[in-house]
Amino acid sequence: MYYVQEITEKIFWVGGNDRRLERFENMFPIPQGVAYNSYLIMDEKTALIDTVDAAISALYLENVTHVLDGRPLDYLIVNHMEPDHCANIEELVRRYPGVKIVGNKKTFQFIEQFYSFNCQENYHEVREGEELALGERTLQFFFAPMVHWPEVMVTYEQKEKILFSADAFGSFGAHPGTLFSDQVDFEHFYLDEARRYYTNIVGKYGLQVQAALKKLSSLDIRMICSVHGPVWRRNLSYILDKYDRWSRYEPEQRGVVLFYASMYGNTENVMNRIAGKLAEKGVRDMRMYDVSKTHASYIIADAWKYSHLVIGSPTYNMGLYFVMEALLHEMAGLNFQNRKVALVGNYTWACKSVPAMRNLVENMKKMEIIGSPFEVNSSMKAAQEPELDKLVDDIYASLLAEGYRNEAD
Ligand SMILES: Cc1cc2nc3c(=O)[nH]c(=O)nc-3n(C[C@H](O)[C@H](O)[C@H](O)COP(=O)(O)O)c2cc1C
Ligand SMILES: [Fe+2]
Ligand SMILES: [Fe+2]
Q: Where would I find the Flavodoxin-like domain in this sequence (predicted)?
């Protein structure tokens, strides 16, 4: 049976949740599921904003049919052509042959690349800033290229001042019954998943997100309707600020993320010792991860959140332990930048992990290596304690220099 929610008097959420999907993009674990949001505006003309993933098509079509209540669908706005939002275009055209598909040149190019049905006579191409009157309401389109994909645009509804933002301001996590961010404790319920979504999915395109934020700054926005996660109708500056910071690659918090690879536990031992020594100095904001255990997306999200990283890896086949190498490549691919980093290497006959990590880190922008990398020859020895203390002192000094406030002081 249909399941829809009213957003405003004549605008309905007609999307759905997927709590079964193991991995988003077949890569990112989503233990809390994901929502695919689509919105239907019931004005003199009817307009549907984006569609949903194929996994929930049956319910989705029921939702749309229910809200339309016998009326035809006049417009289908395609803000983003990624298949998690476009799986239902063909079926909608079949059911509503008069529907105008609203998009830009790239949108239509992508429709033809992904699908083989013929709907050219349904195309309604719009240009940057163009308006579309629906009756009482008017939509306006702004292009946001590479705020995930090149064809992305956002749609602004002028009467109720709603921004339909495509993937922007989205989050992993299915709706827990509630739809609006102010109906849950967002920081507790969504923030980590919103950060993991942004950093891993859109993180590479900080510059383009900044350009989009600048373009939208002149609009009076009262509500943000993304295609994933909750709808924002209160305290919009909160999520706008987060996006601004994330897309500038600025840490949200002073603190340390320690992540390591270790086979026999000796690199792990050094990482524990570093974290323990930092804790003795009063550092409280620390996270530690074994890269072989925790999915990279979680580590990347925390690396985005915190100001300092400690990275440890054994040498493996004259290079870097594969999982660590893959993680650092992934971070570089996401344009990760602007952090302070301490390095820990380990080896039994020839240490290659430190130069390999240094090379990967230094190829990222605005990265600073703290102190001297700490190298262990198979296992740490007591004689190395002063050297480790020195590195910990350097990390601590860097934290203080970056404005870390030590609660223990
Ligand atoms: C498949 C394999 C390849 C390795 N390759 C190297 C190497 O090229 N050079 C080296 O010095 N040690 C190499 N090692 C040894 C580890 O780097 C070394 O034992 C290290 O101390 C392990 O740290 P851990 O206790 O944190 O796992 C290799 C180990 C394995 C299992
Ligand atoms: Fe997308
Ligand atoms: Fe998406």
A: 256-396
What value does the mean pLDDT take over residues 124-138? 98
Judged by DSSP in three states, 314 sits in strand
DSSP letter for each residue of 21-68: -SEETTTEE-TT-EEE--EEEESSSEEEE----GGGHHHHHHHHHHHH
Give yes or no for residue 171 CB within 6 A of ligand 1: no
pLDDT in tens, 206-219: 999 999 999 999 99
- How far apart CA 169 and CA 208 sit, in angstroms, is 14
3-state SS, residue 256: strand
- Which ligand has the shortest distance to the CA of 379? 1
Tell me which H or E stretch contains 328: helix 322-333
Residue 96 main-chain phi, psi, to 5 deg: -125, 75
pLDDT score of 405? 86
Tell me which residue has its CA closest to atom 16 in ligand 1: 347
Which protein residue's CA is at the shortest distance from atom 30 of ligand 1?
A: 316
**Which tokens go with 92?**
């909608």
Question: CB of 42 within 8 A of CB of 11?
Answer: yes
Q: Whose CA is nearest to atom 14 of ligand 1?
A: 316
Q: How far apart are CA 211 and CA 317, in angstroms?
A: 43
Question: Would you say the CB of residue 408 lies under 6 angstroms from ligand 1?
Answer: no
Tell whether ligand 1 has an atom less than 6 A from the beta carbon of residue 314: yes
pLDDT at 408 over 80: no
3-state class (DSSP) for residue 154 = strand
- Is ligand 1 within 6 A of the CB of residue 346? yes
Structural domains present in the chain: 5-247 (3.60.15.10), 255-398 (3.40.50.360)
The DSSP code for 79 is S
The pLDDT value given to residue 406 = 76
What's the pLDDT tens digit per position in 29-47? 999 999 999 999 999 999 9
Strand ranges across the sheet with 162-164: 131-133, 138-143, 153-157, 162-164, 223-225
- What's the pLDDT tens digit per position in 287-321? 999 999 999 999 999 999 999 999 999 999 999 99
Which token pair is 283?
């550092």
pLDDT beyond 60 at 409: no
Name the token pair of 165. 């933002």
Nearest atom in ligand 1 to the alpha carbon of residue 266 is: 25
